[in-house]
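Trying the structure run again after the queue cleared.
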Amino acid sequence: MDFTRYLKQYPDADGRFGKYGGAYLPEQLIPAFREITHAYQTICHSSDFINELRRIRREFQGRPTPVYHCKTLSRKLGSCQIYLKREDLNHTGAHKLNHCMGEGLLAQFMGKKRIIAETGAGQHGVALATAAAFFGLECTIYMGEVDIAKQAPNVARMKVLGANVVPVSTGLKTLKEAVDAAFEDYLQNYETTIYCIGSAVGPHPFPMMVRDFQFVVGEEARAQFQEMMGFLPDVVTACVGGGSNSIGFFLPFVNDPVDIVGVEPLGRSSNLGDHAASMSYGTEGVMHGFDSIMLKDAEGNPAPVYSIASGLDYPSVGPEHAFLRDVGRVKYEVASDEEAVDAFFKLSRYEGIIPALESSHAVAYAMKLAKQMGTGSILVNLSGRGDKDLDYVIEHYGYGEKYADFK
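Done. Tokens:
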């Protein structure tokens, strides 16, 4: 497949990446999503919008974030060198603000007074609450009770920023149920509200919009690595839940001679209900208004999922990821809870960087791959920092003494 015109060709006018994507909506929401699509297509070609977004990224978010060479960690693993794109240094501590500020600008352009969202790890909720404060908008965040208990620091940050955090107590009380609740709210309030979906998922145009806003991550990283080294990395990798950080990181490299690998959460095991690795174990299906690869139960409904990383425990994946896998451009691997925790502590101890548990999955894969490669370079998108995970990790794993040594 020729990727030179990829961004011009995908998604198509119906919001599809090959057979994936689209917009499966209740009849009353069709006009609302058409309005969003028209507004986005208008402002994304506006110099005023682009210049304002660039100003926000530079002056408010602190972009560009740097690329960092993990010298000590690489030496411990062998001769292959690991580099990090430091999205943990983006304001609010993760990549999520990249699309939330764009969505906030869109809401302002459309005259909406309120923005709502779901969140799992809480980083999207914090980012959207930040955007709401910046633009003077009301904000409601839906979050599963399980995730609220695991991510107390982020819940506190959302409330301090002025957001209304609504606990979701149905089902498994995690990310899927939070999405369900946010969609129910949007059905009732779409005239005054915009639902700012937290990943590269959902009905068209959200997979496209989130991808476009996150494209800056890979665009910066590609230029920074080439300036630093004079050539491109052998492998680029990022964690994949819904897929927002990874799709923005991957796409600037799709036309380059670079291996691209997404890392899904294997959780406790490959048994259904013990993981959230939809690309590895799922089949095609429709949920939350879009067609992609999803994990299903015996009746064909979205299966229960699990991951130590709250931001990855979603039973489907962005439609563009499914398409890139089918055309053979991106490979998808897995990392278990134990591997992620090991990477969490090793990056902390040997580089002084505490990563989010989500990002730790990509670091874990990079560590394993570095040993296999022997030489070369791997660029990891460190999508978020681990402050939010410290209480949970310490409670369940202590201070990481057993993970200090390399085997």
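The first helix runs from residue 6 to 9. Worth checking whether this holds up in the mutant runs.
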